[in-house]
Amino acid sequence: MADPDAELAALKKAYDKLNRRQARNERAHFARGLMQGILSMLKPGDVVFDCGANVGDVTQPLAETGAQVHAFEPDPYAFEQLSRRVGGFDNVTLHNVAVGVTAGSVRLMRAANFDDNPKSGSVKSTVVTGGRMIDERDAATIEVEMIALPQMIRDMAATHGEVAFVKMDIEGAELDLLEHMQAEGLFDMVGLTVAETHENKFRDLRPRFAALRQAVTEVYPITRVNLDWI
Known about the structure:
The protein is of the alpha/beta class. It has a domain of 136 residues: Vaccinia Virus protein VP39 (Rossmann fold). Helices cover 40% and strands 20% of the residues. The strands form three sheets. A six-stranded parallel beta sheet has the order 3-2-1-9-10-11. The protein has a three-stranded mixed beta sheet with strand order 4-8-5. Helix 2 links the parallel strand 1 and strand 2. The mean pLDDT is 92.
């Protein structure tokens, strides 16, 4: 005889999964529309940062606007693909580094299935420990350089008036950076900042992510700071 409680729990789980998928699809549609709007507004001479450029899916259309694009990607595999794809653009500067609050060196950890599917796995590479499905063994990590993004934003804003656009998809490292930008008023130096946050990947960091969202949304509209990039 079927267990009604078990059936109800299974239905609730399926319903929650469907809702999450729908919400993700809605964010994806919004992000694509937002991207088209961003591309239509950028012009030669604008400065944009693509943090977590991976293989260049965002970098290339940004470059095609004529804007001065700085693309940051620490994973050697992804950086090689990125270089092949956009290395011929005169208006693109490629940085084989991670971005953080301060400069230094840091361990880059890859997805547990990276060797089986490097293209898909490289998207999940992270410098933040405690991530779901990440191989943190010393033998599987890579030492990479990290640059101080806040100082670069300040320097570029001082030269160009503002940084037109900053995109972050950096697998958890966005938390420290966004908290710092909020505290130091750096969002005011950027026309639009978009970020994909990774609270689902880093469960222990969820309270900080929630506090960050509340602090940002109290001050900035999503047309200035959007934390639902995907």
